[in-house]
Amino acid sequence: MKAKIPVLLVCTVVCLQFGQAQEKLYPNEFSLGDVELLDGPFKDARDLNIEVLLKYDPDRLLAPYRKEAGLEPKAPAYPNWEGLDGHVGGHYLSAMAMNYASTGNMECKRRMDHIVAELKKCQDANTKNNQEWGKGYAGGFPNSAKLWSSFKKGDFKVYFSSWAPWYNLHKMYAGLRDAYIYGDNVMAKEIFLKFCDWGIELTDGLNEEQMQRMLDMEHGGINESYADAYQISGDEKYLKAAKRFSHKQVLDPLSQGIDNLDNKHANTQIPKFIGFDRIAELDDADKFEAASTYFWETVVNNRSLAFGGNSRKEHFPSVASSIDYVTEDDGPESCNSYNMLKLTEGLFRKFPNAKYADYYEKTLYNHILSTQHPEHGGYVYFTSARPRHYRVYSAPNEAMWCCVGTGMENHGKYNQFIYSHNQDALYVNLFISSELDWKEKGIKLKQETDFPNGETTRLTFTEGDANFELLIRYPGWVAKEAFKIRINGEEYEHAAIPSSYIPIARTWKKGDEVEISLPMKNHIERLPNIPQYVAFFHGPILLGAKTGTEDLKGLIADDSRFGQYAGGERLPLDQAPILIEDDLRTIADKLIPVQGKPLHHKLDVKMVNLQELELEPFYQIHDARYMMYWLTLSESGYKGYLDSLSNMEKKKIELERRTVDHVATGEQQPESDHYMEEAKSNSGNSHDDFWREARDEGYFSYKMATGSESNLNLLVRYWGFEWGQRKFDIYVDDEKLATVDNTKKYNISQFKQEMYPVPESLLEGKEFVRVKFIAHPNSTVSAVYDVRLVRPN
């Protein structure tokens, strides 16, 4: 097998100059320390994020690691999602390394070094105390001894009853790698490679079928970690492991151009493709390259919303269920976009195409930047696209969500993709105020801009002379022939088209100035598969509108299990502002600029449910309900559509108002949130919805909140046409609530809801109950699509 990477990139040199390890792993990227952010929104976000990060206690994040290693924790572990113990600790280590590399902040370095030193103690203790399974282990997963000792023997019972063990470990694999490549901590490299060796030894006895079955559970980007270990060390065993940790369920079809992503958990998939891309980058692996490039194309072009994010209720919808983007509260997760940008960087390294930079810019401004509160710095989990809904923010030391972990990193690497290089070519990818120190060429380049408030940027060579090709991105959002360049005052003629790079080859000298004009035009984007909903853009900037501040329940999340969900009332879709326009080709021209307020516009369009609204950059909208997508109907068709929409909305809103607690069965996060227990149970997706069933005395159960109410019903949704025996019991705690026989009961291909009144005696004095479905012998629990505790009508 012939590797694509030169020997220099895999050498095991220990003594590295500051920041050089990063370039050894990603050779076309500049080290974070070589690109300084100048005044502007990204520097502000980065600096605020450092303030927030320093409010966390590293010893609390380390507590799970010390506990599993048999060492006394120095501080109590964080609650909530640190029940997925250790996952945020890895993100935090990455964030410390990135911010140290970007700013030279010595407190970030001190914390990075402290965490690495503590992990070394944990790894050594695991090697000594857990010799059967723990040689080299540096994880903090709960009950590690029980889990990994049985796992090593091929017994997956504990593994499949746990919450995503490899996903958890991947965060610390990445944290240790980042402490080395960004922070030049050589001890982190040693721990990382020993941790990788642990994983190889642990899985050495598993056959291919067992490996693939193991990968059916969310496992983060473990294959990426092993590809990185290969590039860092040059040892082929890590490349082999990267391929063994690659999930064929998506690798095979996507490499053949087959999109099988419908109803799959979105952020389970994206890191796999980052790993596929890394394997393709380092090895002659056409299949991995085809899978990662096709995945990017179908997610970006077919499955992403206007702000660059993807998924609803954490899953990729089918075409038929895409309406969920606006009917459901739970829009794209921030961590999805974190990972999509990482995949985009990787693809750009091999194929420096402007389409990758266009997507990167769009998502960076409209999603990533928008997910940080500009005052207290809280992070966002879900960004809802539902008209007149809102977002919830985290608080330091509480709510250890996945998007808190990725949020810690997001704002520390804004300078990573502004510039890149390929031998003698320098790419200007983003228009962000910054200064580049290209040490290899002895060149310093300063970019000054107030973009997106203004439509120009200036590049000034402040040090050095060198001959190379400067490639400037011509964004896809600038009109044809409208992108202008002047070099030292003289116009530079070019024939480039939007979404391309303009190459300028010459000897650049100190004092040279390149002035760039990038006029922004208005345009719309339609909601994927639901063309009646449109979003407005000015250039790459998504425009939204604040619609009110009523009932922003849980705006800053507490440490509760469901604090990431916006608890305020859903406002009816049919009562949101609706645009009436017969010609959508011209609707973007009806944005009227507001004088003295850059990027603010009025909308000169006929509107049902008229409100005085002002459009502004979505990334600046906080602490408010908002419009991102607008239902846009023709003059002749809107009345009938609204009548139908109104009837559906009334039913949905009424059910939500009556609901005390709700489990979306078969979906990973809601089931985990409700502490599911199961045996002989399986889940799947049919009719664009998820379900769970159990067979032959098997069961599944959920811990559900009662709200301390005692007059409740259990509402269960089934599919009306099923085969075979469907006899089962429903229990509330240890008391049988109902015996159900759905065998040939409905015989119709429609969803059916059944209501089971819950006696007050089973609810009185209880904040929670466990609802359990148990199959009769030789029978199966009907596929359950939804479980709710609801108040009576």
UniProtKB/TrEMBL annotation:
GO terms for biological process, alphabetical: carbohydrate metabolic process
Domain of life (superkingdom): Bacteria
Chain intervals for the UniProt region annotation (Disordered): 664-688
Protein name per UniProt: Uncharacterized protein
Domain Non-reducing end beta-L-arabinofuranosidase-like GH127 middle, chain residue ranges per copy: 426-520
Residue intervals of the Glycoside hydrolase GH146 substrate-binding domain: 654-790
Biased composition (Basic and acidic residues): 671-688
Domain Non-reducing end beta-L-arabinofuranosidase-like GH127 catalytic: residue ranges: 34-415
Organism encoding this protein: Flagellimonas oceani
InterPro entries: 6-hairpin_glycosidase_sf, Beta-AFase-like_GH127_cat, Beta-AFase-like_GH127_middle, DUF4986, GH146_SB_dom
Pfam families: Beta-AFase-like_GH127_cat (PF07944), DUF4986 (PF16375), DUF6805 (PF20620), Glyco_hydro127M (PF20736)
Ranges where the DUF4986 domain occurs: 548-630
